[in-house]
Specification:
Length: about 130
């Protein structure tokens, strides 16, 4: 959205408060939706994945992409007759959900590894053991 609003602001040659608001509004809108989805969907999902002991960045990323796709489709595709708009918004929603959830998943993996008293079992390295 920023690509479409930036030329409209810069066309006049002046950048004022209204111009900055026009340019940054899509970013704030996207941030708000992503943050709300992370709280409403991500935190309960964290509790579920932790209880099932399957917290990995891949699991978070796949589920984040799935919910990032479903939110616009369910909002616009079911509530109205705008399936084309819903599928158009599903692409950035999928990316935002996948990136946000994967980042959260890596952070959760880091917490788990930092709090685990024993390091994970390493596979045997017979060639390395023969050399050293």
């Amino acid at each position: 959205m920023l690509i479409f609003t930036l030329p409209a602001v810069l066309e006049g040659g002046q950048v004022d408060a209204l111009g900055i608001a026009i340019v940054t509004m899509p970013l704030w809108y996207s941030f708000g939706i992503t943050f709300a989805a992370a709280l409403v969907i991500g935190l309960p999902l964290t509790a579920i994945l932790r209880r099932w002991d399957c917290e990995t960045a891949v699991n978070y990323g796949v589920l984040g992409a799935l919910f990032g796709f479903l939110i616009p489709v369910m909002t616009f595709g079911i509530a109205s007759d705008w399936l084309g708009l819903a599928l158009t918004l599903a692409v950035p929603g999928t990316l935002a959900g996948a990136i946000t959830a994967t980042t959260w998943g890596y952070w959760r993996e880091g917490l788990r590894w930092a709090s685990d008293p024993e390091p994970p079992d390493q596979p045997a390295k017979p060639i390395h053991d023969l050399i050293h």
